[in-house]
Specification:
disordered N terminus, globular, 122 residues, single chain, alpha+beta
Length: 122
């Protein structure tokens, strides 16, 4: 899988998603810090979804918050083990992965399909 964030970033759907996820940023930022600080991964990824998924560890469910999204904490390593990121693409993924102190890496499952995107952490 190759990251294709540029196409979605310019769309109205991306802006709507980014707005909907504002209230989740603090929680995802804290989870990102925990993943990195505990040496789980240098590449935290948050699975943003509205259906049941078997990726990552649930950190919030849409039924428990005022938003429309459930969030699971995952990592590049888990995505590789589940073949969502091909082993042959790890180096490419690492090149495009943005600084987790400034950005959140999201794997968004929506009507647009499955896409990796990055949003500013703050």
């Amino acid at each position: 899988m190759v990251l294709k964030a540029n196409n979605i970033n310019k769309s109205g759907k991306f802006l709507k998603l980014q707005s909907e996820l504002k209230s989740y940023k603090k929680m995802m930022g804290q989870a990102s810090d925990t993943i990195i600080d505990n040496d789980v991964s240098e590449y935290p990824i948050f699975v943003i979804h509205q259906q049941t998924v078997e990726i990552g560890i649930p950190i919030t469910r849409k039924e428990q918050v005022t938003g429309n999204w459930s969030v699971n904490a995952s990592s590049m390593e888990e995505m590789v083990s589940k073949q969502l990121i091909y082993e042959s693409k790890i180096a490419e993924f690492k090149k495009v992965y943005k600084d987790p102190q400034k950005n959140l890496c999201l794997f968004v499952l929506s009507e647009l399909g499955a896409q990796f995107i990055f949003i500013p952490r703050y």
